[in-house]
Every structure is written in structure tokens, then in C-alpha cells.
Amino acid sequence: MGRNAEPVSGGSARSGERRARMEQEDVFYSEQLDCGIEVVGQPMAGVESAAVGILVGTGARDEEPAHFGVSHFTEQMLFRGTEHYDARALSESFDSLGVSYDSTAGLEMTLISAVFLGDRMEPTLNLLGDILRYPSFPEPDVESVRTQLLQELLQREDQPAQKVMDVLRQEFFAGSPISHDVLGGEATVSVLTRADLCDYWTQRYTANNMVISVAGNFDWKIFVHHIRRLTEAWSQGRGRMVIDKPTPKTGITVMHRDAAQENIGFAFPCVSVSDPDYYAAALLSLCLGGSSYSRLFREVRDKRGLAYAVQSRFDGLEKTGLMRVYVGTSVDRAHESIEVVLDELRKLETEGIMEDELSTAKTRLKSQLIMRSESTSARMVANLRSWWFEGRLRPLQEIKEEIDTVGVDEIASLVRTMAVMDNLAAVALGPRSEEELFGGVTVQPWRR
Prior knowledge:
Layout: H1 13-25, E1 29-32, E2 38-43, E3 49-56, H2 70-77, H3 87-97, E4 100-105, E5 110-117, H4 121-133, H5 139-157, H6 160-172, H7 186-189, H8 194-204, E6 210-216, H9 220-231, E7 251-256, E8 261-270, H10 278-289, H11 295-303, E9 307-316, E10 321-330, H12 334-350, H13 355-373, H14 376-390, H15 396-405, H16 408-418, E11 425-430, H17 434-438
Parallel strand pairs: 2-6, 7-11
Antiparallel strand pairs: 1-2, 3-5, 3-6, 4-5, 8-10, 8-11, 9-10
Helix pairs in contact: 2-8, 4-9, 10-13, 11-12, 13-15
């Protein structure tokens, strides 16, 4: 169990509730079961619900080329039936308990989750255990899910901003498993078989490749008892797969499409999720393009009216990180938009971040963390990620203090380490050619 705050007595009922929340803020539990599954928990005062998440350490990065898309396909099949329930019976069972459930497969992990009233934990865990241990992968549903996934691929073509951001990551990390497409591709999704899904589930959904997290209203001993009962016979496999740190690829990729807009993305390397500079990177992203006070929003949208959308996004991964900038603009203003974005990136290296920018970013980041921490589901996910990537659980106060210690000098050092202009990649989707978009721009990181 983690640190416990000293109890405080006296005061009003409301202040007592606040104290209870503060006392439980630093209370964490963790245990590794004999089967290999790691279990973590954090109680939350003043809530009636609990959230449980099962993190499976597998995602698009773990797929072989012939099976691209199998992680997402497998995850989508989990709720289509088990050896004991068909899809309708599963849905009705969850609904009768008032459980909100979900699943998602990403680049590095898969998450199956449920939120429910605390007194309905045992039947909810029984259902989740059945889904993970005894999925039936019914053949008729394989075809219906395949159709759904192919439609998802087509739908992305109608979402140019998402398309650009996805291709940007794929091009930037080309040659690394981190470049794999979470949705797979039409060629592979069209031919994946039920046997492929079963094999993938057998190899990757193993006890030593899982972490289970609970947050909210629960009794730890009872929770662990149920998890142990459900998982004691689960098999172990290869466990967590290890990949090399990818080498980023610079350059320009232009995808031609007849349209009235240009969608443009830029990427440069950043830090991993466990790096000491993680929160410095998060603050940098907020200063650059994280809200209406950010540099890119002011310079590209407010001051010049060049784009209808501009933003930055930081993603910390296990071995590396990625900072991306997106600009959605009209065709006739695309070239100037690129000029302004490149100039702002150059200024990051030459001028750094100002104190007032950093202060505003800190306030926003801490507010986001506090608001998310009031959700059992968000707290459960945060603890899963922290345990999986860092092997520890972190109190909110510790994170806030870490954010407060970041100064402009730390941001400047991070920017120098990233060497933004030397490691820049760009992707554009629209009617303009590479020369029309990037030719003659004042800042030319690709043509030094």
C-alpha cells in the first residue's frame, strides 16, 4: 500500500469530506498475483461508483505486416460473445447491472474497462473475466466486425485532419513498429481470419502481459480475492514485447486531393512517457498550440486569420515521444500558414518560452489534472499508465509539484535536446504541390 495521510478530526461535514479525499489521495494498493497479473488500486472518498480497467500490453506496434489491424479486430470481437454468453446475453447482463463498458486498442496497448456502482463489483468482474478468458470469436460476427472496420478506414478518408496526423506519425517513424497503423489497412483487414484472431488472443492476452486497475468505491481485499479467483488458471506467454527506440525520419510528404482546404502537419521528436522532462514537454505543447492563448493560435489564427484550425499535440510513448502541429487552412493561404508555423518553431529554438506563457500553461495543465482526477474512470486509466510505463503510482500533489518546478530554462534545454528544426517532418493533404506549399519559404529546415 502507498503512503497514508495523517487523519484529521473536527470541522464541518463538508470539510470532513475534503479531508477524507485528501487522506485517500495518497493511498495506493498494488499486488502481483501468482499467475503474473499485476493489480493496482486507489480508493476515492465521496463516490459510489468504481472503475475497473484491464490493460493488455499489446497494440498495433506488436503486429506482423501480414496481420496489420489484428489488435483492433481482436478487441472489437471481445464483446461479441463468449463460451457462456452470446453478444445479446452479454449486453443484457451488463445493462441489468447498470454497467458502462468499453474497449479500445491503440498503438501500444489495449484497454477493456467498466464503470459501475461499488456494490455490483463481483458480477461485473465475473462478466469481464469471461470476456477476457473465454471469448468465442463467433464466425458470423467476424464478418460483421470486418465490415465495420473497413468502414472505419473509409471514414478516416473523410476526416483529413485525422488522416494527416496518422500519416505524419507513420512517416516520421517509418521502419519502426511505432509507425504501424492502428486501423490496419484494407488489404490485411479484408483477409484476417477467425484463426488469426484466436492465435493473436492466445499469444498476447496472457496473464504476464496485463495490469488491472481499480479506482473509486471498493474494498481492496475483496477486489483482489475476486481477481485472483477469476485469473488463477490464466496462462503466461512471452509477456511484454520490447522494441528499439525508433530513429525519426525528416522530410516532406504531400498527398494530393482535390479539395477547398489544405491540411498540413508538422512533427518533431519529443520525450517518452517516463522521461523526467515529460511535464516540461506537456507545458511546451500548451504554450505552442494547446489553447487560445498559445503562440500558434495567436500568430496563425488571431493575428493573421490564416487558418480555421491550428493546434499542437504531444504524445509520450514507451520508448520515445512525438510533438505534432496541425494547421487546417484555405488553399490560397496554405503557403503563408507554413511560413508562420516554421517561423514560430524557429523562435522556440532562438527565443524560448516567456515566463507569463509558462505560468498560464501551468495553471491550465494543473486544472486539467485536477478535473480529471475527480473521475473514477480517469483516475483508473492514469494509474494503469503510470504503473505500466513507470512501475509506480503517483499522488496528484506530487505531479502538481513536478509541474511547478518546470522553469523556462528547463523548457529551453528540452527544445535544444529535441533539435526541432533539424528533425522536422511535414505532411500535407490537399490540392497544392510540394513546390507550391514549401517552395521559397524563408525558413527551410529541409534544405540547409
